[in-house]
Known about the structure:
The complex is a heterodimer.
Chain A: H1 8-11, H2 30-52, H3 64-77, H4 79-111, H5 113-127, H6 135-142, H7 146-170, H8 174-183, H9 187-223, H10 230-239, H11 243-271
Chain B: E1 8-19, E2 22-33, E3 37-41, H1 48-56, E4 63-67, E5 72-75, H2 87-92, H3 97-110, H4 126-138, E6 144-148, H5 156-173, E7 176-181, H6 184-190, E8 193-198, E9 201-207, H7 218-230
Parallel strand pairs in B: 3-7, 3-8, 5-6, 6-7
Antiparallel strand pairs in B: 1-2, 1-4, 8-9
Helix pairs in contact in B: 3-4, 4-5
Amino acid sequence: MSTPAITAVELRGPAVQTSAPRVAPRRRGLPYKVISWAVPLLLLGVWELLARAGVIAPNVLPAPSSVGTTAWRLTETGELPTHLWESLKRAAIGLAIGGSLGLVLGTLTGFSRLGEAIVDRNIQIVRAIPFLAILPLVMVWFGVGESGRYFLVALGTLFPIYLNTVLGIRQVDPKLLEMGRVIGLPRLRLVRTVILPGALPSVLLGVRLALTNAWLALVIAETVGAPAGIGYMATNAREFLQTDVIVLVIVLYALIGLTTDLIARALERRLLAWHPNYTGGTK
Amino acid sequence: MSTAVEAPAVVARSVTRRYGDRTVLHELDLQIRRGEFVALIGKSGCGKTTLLRTLAGIDPVDGGDLTVPPSSTVVFQEHRLLPWWRVWRNVAINLPRSTARARAQSALEEVGLGDHAEAWPVTLSGGEAQRVALARALVREPELLLLDEPFAALDALTRIRMHGLVRDLISRHRPAVLLVTHDVDEAILLADRVLTMRDGRIAADHRVTAAARSRGDAAFVALRAELLAELGVVER
């Protein structure tokens, strides 16, 4: 459908010189929503029909319904929740390590020239290494233990958060900083009230990118010698040609990605209530 | 110079400021008395904004002596409100915590925005945002108020209303004021003295009489023509 309905709420608030130009409103009208969901559902139906008619062999691509049955079976045996929990735990721990490192190093680089001189080039060099190229080294270092998997996830989440933190701090409006100085804010207060809130939109974007990377790192980490986790489930299923389990794992990765993105967006809406591009006019 | 009341708020003697090899302020002399409203006009690039920034302590001095009161604030052309803080917190920024909320509220009421305390800055109009910026400056009870073209970005009608408001507020708080502006009419209507600036120096100093403050008066027309002539503008 063409233009979504623009509500009065979204149009409120006149242009202020210092604020960014407004993007198109996020809320969509009903027809758009219905169609955007109907098409994937329709494709799912076609897939189901083709699989049942025998056009697609079950060992190539099982019907959605049989993937659903498998999911139910594995949930009942407790296998799926166990593996899912393992994966979520790895992602969370890895993200916590990589994210906080990225935030601290990014803040260091963003604030001081000396910090930048010490930190930045190292980060840029390590960042230039393709992620997968490190994998053999990680296995030599950590063996098949958990720490190697945490390391991979941390490595994947460090860079986006680092880069976006630096960028966010650099992009803080110098006019607001000048105002803070004229008002007589002490340096630490200036950081807390002007610089960090100003960098927050960029940092949160970094968190979202880091979440994507975390799952990517996890897929790699779990398909190589993990004793549990949904990646292990998929690798195991491959041995026994259980295509339904493999598809289930792929769907799970997608669902997890969607869920974390929703959470990250909710966080943005909550923390950036003041920002014209994230809100439908909060007052 | 015997009593504190007569002591000037701002004294600049031979103040010089250079950017590279370009001299922006050239041995400039200036005095502003306590409670006096001084307007500064001049062509773009004549150094008037640099002078204001020097008085505000944002820009350093390369030569000469400069005395300013310990408490001074600036209202800029842009409101410069923190978009992540509600209006009242913007006004209360850096005030002692215990009284901050109450003082911000009364300052907002003074500029006619008492019911906007909980609003986000982004929801304000240009004129409202500038009034908040004014409240943020005055709530500190500064001895020197520096206005850097604060009405330049407003529409003509809002600007007229702002002139009235500023005149009221200043007659109540009595800070020394330096207004930098491009608008000759604005300078005459608001200030006690109008200075013109050329080549990094104060070129002329005009006292504004009470009669000159009404647009219809002959004194207003005469002073306006004189100031425009000093700025090299010929009206046809």
